[in-house]
Amino acid sequence: MISIKNLCKTYHPKGGVSVQALNNVNLDLPETGMVFVIGKSGSGKSTFLNVLGGLDRYDSGEIIIKGKSSKLFTQGDFDSYRNTFVGFIFQEYNILPEFTVAKNVGLALELQGKVGNQATIESILEQVDLKGYDQRKPSELSGGQRQRVAIARALIKNPDIILADEPTGNLDSNTGRQVLETLRKLSKTKLVMVVSHDREYAEQFGDRIVEFADGVIINDTTKYYAPPQNTGAVNITDGKNLQIMAGQELTAADTDVINRFLKNAKADAAIRISESGSIKTFAPTKEVPQKAYDAKDFKLIRSRLPLKDSFRMGASGLKSKPVRLVFTVLLSVIALTLFGLADTLGSYNKVTTTLTSMRDSGIRQAVLEKQVVSLDLYNNYAYMGSTPMTKEDLTALNQKLTDFTFIPIFKQSISISDTFAYHTINNTNITGRFNTTSGFLETDQNVLNSLGFKIDPGYGRLPTNNAEVAISKHIYWLYTQYGYKKPIIGGNTSHGIGIGSEIDSYISPIQSPSDLLEEKLYMGGIELTIVGIIDTNFNDAHFAPLFEEKPSGVTGSLSNFLLLDEYFALARTSLHAAAFMKQGFYEYIFDNDSWTVCSQYPLSFNLFNSRQDVYSYGAITYSQIAAADKSKIIWASGYSAPSKLAENEVIVSLATLQGICKSQNNINAEDWDAMSESEKMDKCQQILGETYYFDYFIPQSNEIIGTGAKIIGVHSGVSTGVAIDFTICSDELCALIQDNTNPIKYAVAPLTGNNVKDLNLVKFSYETHDGIKYVLRNEVSQSLDNLNNTIENLSRVSFYVGIGFAVFAGLMIMNFIATSISHKKREIGILRAIGARSSDVFGIFFNESLIISLVNFTLAAIAVFGFGILLNSVLRRDYNILITLLHFGIRQLALILVVSVGTAFIASLLPTMRISNKKPIDAINNN
């Protein structure tokens, strides 16, 4: 069966002298029989057995097993060779403590891919006198019983070879004999090789004795039975073996033979009692015939450790270091949580963040503003500038985004700032943010329903004719806080302009909706009656800090800046600042002869020696101003009311005049506020009649044009229905910037509530289509525009931070598994000895690390989800920022799972590869 050729093995201990354990060993072994390998300690007998069983590696030579040379073996082949042909019995039993007797025995069968059924196991246990012990744990057995369990484990897979290393070394003599008797029975059908230091046992039970000394076979003898040399009761063979017939009485002659034998006997002489009369003796082993084998005789069975056993052994390893396990899990969970949060930030997507933030902020409508490439000739650069839409633009929008129905907000506005008291909080003119409405929306109950708006009982109704208007509930709230100032033009000041304390005399307190309903507003000279107050779901709580002397909900200058910027965006673009008109109002207003506003675009005046813009909002035509209003204009010295303005002449508002005055004279806000109105006006007189650089926008070409403009007059709300800081221009200039063909300021559509559809809309708003963008306008998009670059930079950094945390989590698990492997090294060696492959060992520790990783994953997923909610809440609650920054979703869940399982795989693979490369015998001996 086995032929050993020129086998050599040398040990090279660290810092010691090399020891040649096997020196050119040659040996042929039969198919069956009991072969004892004996010798003193260090003679090489155990090394020989380990090399023969593939537990240790030889340096040179070869082992031929059933015709197959071991030179062709891989490490996996040696594992499979043990799994298929070899049953090991060790001096230290080497049975697995966490398994029962039945499981220890059945495991060897299961590694062959067979079912270790109870009947088979019980039958094997009965053969080794362990019937009824199947559910006992190894700790409940005696030494002899454990050894018989090891024998049963070797027997159950019916191996061709049984290798026993000092199987009686830890047993009493009686138990030892029982074990050897069992092995001798097995040797009738198998090759049983027993390493022993006991020659008496070898001669009594062995069929062959191979003796080692210093790594060399010094004696190889085989037992045989010689016939009696005489008919007496006593026979002597080879001068050293005395055989006495059982059941015979000794004669005087027999006694003389015995006495002579004893007198001449040497140390190795033996006396035996024989039943047959044959003389048992050992003679040098003759040539052992070798059977001819073909390929089918050497068919290896690749081991396959059952998953439940692998999982159970892996789970048992968690008990070995409970404190280390707790710290490993704790630190790994922290690392994975930080990884999840880092990835959540690292996967920041402006589109997703915008939509989620809008929903979380209660914004249910999309307001789109058209932007095109505009030119700033003064600074010589191009930028995306806002421009009104045509009805064709609106139609195109509805065709591109078929899931939405856009309705227009027309660009004509109602001047409302002059109906508020001027009110400053924290050095900010809050009410001045709503200087005009954001435009007007033709509405009815269907439109109101689609937008999710309503009119509460007691808050009026929708307009039913073109002389009526409904305002938002927030604008109504501003009136309740600061009063309603009737839009009366003029006054009795020295300059003929209504300024100063006289404005306050026109303020009416507003305590309930009925106090404001039926009051008047003006649009382009048209008187409008307030008939309704619409609840637009304005987030009062979010903006409340702006209206407190000491903001309680805003932390830091960034939050203040963002909140003010959001409020400004809301005042300019949202439906919270819109005027709600009757359906058909657009046709009515544009056909009305009193329409005098030629531009709603900001115009700017710039000092030639600095770039300090002073804005004027909108322009009207001088020729359309009534004669009575013209008489209230203050003219520059040498000027009087002309019939028409020259092309380069303009009349500015008092606010614009004072803005230019402050810039030109470098007067700070504190000094300016300390001046009286008379002093301010005297200071500003020098500006009248002077020429300044003047920017204006040409809608038809989307260009900003700069030219010189002479300021020849100043007004204060001369014409009703327009903002107080408009500019009066010549007919020629107004004709140039007139753009009533583009009447739509914004387009609005309700969100669908469908995630895919709404995301498509948001994505569309961030894209440029043929040089045109339709930008989303609301308080959320405003904050994101301010913070997007910062968030994206943080997102990129978070990617690498996340990788670092993932690596740290893997190292923690790897460290624990390496410790666990060190703790279970002996069990690994035992598994390898009974035929398990490296993949089986890997499976055990992968399951162990997988258990840890799944615990880590579960806890980390909960932590990331919780911290995400907490951090988003902190942004809203403590910093009042309407951005839902962290989105914990399927991606994060999947990534944490992948990282957890991936680290489990790598953490198991690397230490397992190291232990798998170790020789099984070294693992068993814990070397």
Strands, helices and their partners?
Layout lengths: L1 E10 L7 E11 L3 E7 L5 H8 L7 E6 L2 E2 L5 H11 E5 L10 H10 L7 H10 L15 H14 L4 E5 L7 H14 L4 E6 L2 H7 L2 E6 L2 E11 L7 E4 L3 E5 L6 H13 L5 E5 L4 E6 L22 H10 L5 H25 L3 H11 L4 E12 L4 E6 L4 H10 L6 E4 L13 E2 L2 E2 L10 E4 L1 H7 L16 E5 H10 L1 E2 L21 E2 L4 H4 L3 E4 L2 E9 L5 H4 L12 H18 L5 E4 L2 H6 L6 E10 L6 E9 L5 H4 L3 E2 L13 E5 H12 L3 H6 L2 H8 L6 E8 L4 E13 L11 E3 L1 H7 L6 E7 L4 H11 L2 E2 L2 E5 L2 H45 L1 H9 L4 H40 L12 H27 L3 H5 L3
Helix pairs in contact: 3-5, 4-5, 5-6, 9-27, 10-25, 10-27, 10-28, 11-24, 11-25, 17-25, 20-22, 25-27, 25-28, 27-28
In a few lines, what is going on in this structure?
The protein is an alpha/beta fold and 927 residues long.
Q: What fraction strand?
A: 15-25%
**Which structural category do the helix and sheet elements fall into?**
alpha/beta
> What does the largest sheet look like?
15 strands, mixed
CA(first)-CA(last) distance? 32 Å
Q: Architecture of the domain at 2-223 in CATH?
A: 3-Layer(aba) Sandwich
CATH top level class name of the domain at 2-223 = Alpha Beta
- List segments where confidence is low: pLDDT < 50 over at least 5 consecutive residues: 489-505
Q: Which geometry do the CA atoms define? A: rod-shaped
CATH topology-level name of the domain at 2-223: Rossmann fold
Total beta strand runs: 36
CATH homologous superfamily assignment of the domain at 2-223: P-loop containing nucleotide triphosphate hydrolases
> How large is the radius of gyration?
50 Å
What count of helical segments does DSSP give? 29
- In round numbers, the mean pLDDT is 82
Helix content: 25-40%
